[in-house]
Amino acid sequence: MAREPSPSSGTAPRLIRRLISTCAVLLPAAAGAAEYVDAPYADRRAFSLILGPGASYTESIDRSASDAEKGGDAHLDLGGSRTVGYDGDEVFVVIRGSLRGPDLSVAGGFRNVYGDGSWQTFYDLGLLIRPFSGPWLGPRVALGVRHTFSERLAVFGGLGLALGFGAGLRGDAEAFTGVQWIFPVGSK
User: Fold this and answer.
1) Which end of the chain is less congested by CB atoms within 10 angstroms, N or C?
2) Is 177 part of a structural domain of the chain?
3) What does pTM read for this prediction?
């Protein structure tokens, strides 16, 4: 004896197929609409150009290096950054020109950013290299605040400390400010 399919058994697979196709269309759309985007880095990768003035104070810690420059100085930073990770963190490199003399240095490292709104705090961990006036190479740490005006423009400022090893031992304290032009280059 062969069983005949009941009328309800044909509608169940059709209903399941419709439910699956409806979920396949609606769930990705709902997930995209639910994503919270408030910061310029929240949904895309970006390169940034950095330009800003600052001031520093240098002290020679090793007294045998009597030819080292000591005292205050003004500087100008020019460089760039690239976002990494998922929270707007950056890797950066800046060339720092000194007002005191023809001394160039290179600072680079990792900038860890905290905050989701337009005001964010950050800390820098990196290296400061002074190839011409020493030479000196050493760690640099900094704390600062950044305010993003739009997806394309931010201003920042902070305080930092650096040590230099090489031609004696050197300590630098700095205050820095800057403008950051942001150029999105793709999504995560």
Assistant:
1) N
2) yes
3) 0.70
